[in-house]
Amino acid sequence: MRAIVVCALAVATLALGLLVLPWDWSVVPTAEPDVFASPVQPWQWTVAGIGLLLLSAASGAAGHPLLPLAGVAVPALAYWCWRSAAAEVIGANLWPVGAIMLAPLLAVVVLVGGGAGRMLTRRRASA
């Protein structure tokens, strides 16, 4: 049963990334010469982060609070690495460094979300 939940969460996490974030993360030129910008807007990162938190809360409510690590954090990190590695950048593409910095933050977010979902489920059950 938990394997099905993890697979469903992974699919939902990848769908969230595909729906909210642009496909190409390569830098884009701006109106100023030699100035480039990220194609991913801050609102897109915010929506993706809130979506990951909600998915992890739902998985915590559905089962073990550690399910979000396997079902949400790992697919989100894999998607981030894939799209970052494929992006064309100016200079070195340091996506491995970004992944090392993102992994702990992502783990904390999904564990807090999963724990909150599990706690809400237990409170409703005891009331």
Major sheet, described briefly?
2 strands, antiparallel
Tally of helical segments: 4
- Computed structural class: mainly alpha
Q: N-to-C terminal Cα separation, in Å? A: 26 Å
Sequence of secondary-structure elements: HEEHHH
> Percentage of helical residues?
over 70%
What proportion of the residues form beta strands (DSSP E)?
Answer: under 5%
Oligomer: single chain
Describe this structure as you would to a colleague:
This protein is mainly alpha-helical. It has one domain (2-126). 72% of the residues lie in helices and 3% in strands. It has four helices and two strands, in the order αββααα. It has helices at residues 2-20, 42-62, 67-86, 95-126, and strands at 28-29, 36-37. A hairpin with a 6-residue loop joins β1 (28-29) and β2. The longest helix has 32 residues, at 95-126. The radius of gyration is 17 Å and the shape is elongated. The model has no long low-confidence stretch (mean pLDDT 90).
List the topology elements.
Blueprint: H1 2-20, E1 28-29, E2 36-37, H2 42-62, H3 67-86, H4 95-126
Antiparallel strand pairs: 1-2
For the structure shown, list the relevant keywords.
mainly alpha, 4 helices, 127 residues
Write a compact overview of the structure shown:
Strand 1 and strand 2 form a beta hairpin.
